[in-house]
Amino acid sequence: MSYMEQNKLLGRLYLNLIKGLNALDRICLDDILNGEILPSCFSRTLVEKFVQKKLEPATWTPDVWLQMAQYQQTYYEKHGIQVLSFFDESYPSLLRETARPPYILFVRGNISILNTNCLTIVGTRYPTGLGLETAQCIAKSAVQHGFTVVSGLARGIDTASHAGAVQGDGYTIAVLGSGIDYIYPAGNKGIAEKILATGGAIISEYPCDMKPGKYTFPERNRILAGLSYATVVIEAPLGSGALITADYAIEEGRDVFVSARCINSIRSEGCRKLQEDGASPLDSIEEILKQYNETTLFI
Length: 299
What we know:
Layout: H1 3-17, H2 23-32, H3 44-51, H4 62-78, E1 82-85, H5 93-96, E2 104-109, E3 118-122, H6 129-144, E4 148-151, H7 157-167, E5 172-175, H8 189-197, E6 201-204, H9 216-226, E7 230-233, H10 241-251, E8 255-259, H11 269-276, E9 280-282, H12 285-291, H13 294-297
Parallel strand pairs: 3-4, 3-7, 4-5, 5-6, 7-8, 8-9
Antiparallel strand pairs: 1-2, 2-6
């Protein structure tokens, strides 16, 4: 990385730390400044002028942010973590089209698969045996038909989906609701390593050392939905976080499917509600391929 590229990255890491801004504020600021973000020239009044909102003076700590940005830059370089901004060519194109794209994505692993044909598979953390088997089978079939499987590395359906993709000798992307270096739950560190070892990727909008919180998982779900043409919900009771992912997909005009095989499961009340609202039941990946123009999907 050149000196200029290092400075640009440092500036973006700094901007990502400013309190009181959301991702769209940061994207707008970066765009206005054409990526030339100089921490030493960044005053609170200047930022307030650009984003048209007041920032709390007590939380304006530029020296702390600069020190943290420098630490993060060194940490990411040392640990092989790639940093993608909204403006980078490798940023996922489907995610860029969404209403609230992340300003920055932190990536471990194979960055090139972020712009492949992705299929999101999600569901409850507490599935039935049928749900686990179905998630694994659908994910395995999906990668064998050329899709990259996206899921959230949570226990239950997510874990089975990643495992199925790995077993199918395909690629899978895990989207974290925690910092890029914080695997949660800890019991999934093994599958996380398998994802990376088989050419997959682990991504997060949250920086290193950040533990998950109540809001981080629902926010993560918009990325799960935004990366893909379609979302498949295997099993989900009412109130499941998987239904939040489905809602985001619907808001973005993406397709939502529910597992036909699990639709009568005791853990699928939320899926039945999705079907009532228009989600299509899915028996096999071939049905998704029939719905899309394959020459458009696989280019």
